[in-house]
Amino acid sequence: MNDLDIKTKLIKCIKDTCAYDEDIKETDNLKNDLGYDSLQVVSLICEIEETFDITFDSSDLTFENIKTIKDLINLIKKTLAYETI
Q1: Which terminus in the chain has less CB density within 10 A, N or C?
Q2: Under 8 Å between Cβ of 83 and 49
């Protein structure tokens, strides 16, 4: 799966879990730009795991690790790479 596929699926997950209607950029911050609170982040993580058929390592799921859309893309790529080994 390439970066564009990941980004496209991720943006759909974001639009399914929040009411943000603007264009979503990789630099957007989940909390500051998209308005996510902690409960919405949990919902988004569940949506991502279901969409990509992956399970994140719980140690990766901190606000320090997933502040921006790019952080989520990198985490998805890391998890996909790990699960295919």
Answers
A1: C
A2: no
What would the two tokens of residue 56 be? Answer: 């994140």
pLDDT of residue 12: 93
Structure tokens at 30: 């989940």
Active site residue 37: yes
Q: pTM of this prediction? A: 0.89
C-alpha span between 17 and 43 (Å, rounded):
7
**Cβ contact 18:34 at 8 Å:** yes
Radius of gyration of the chain (CA): 12
Chain-centroid distance of CA 57 in Å reads 14
The residue annotated as part of the active site, out of 3, 5, 16, 37, is: 37
**Residue in the block written with tokens 């991720």:** 10
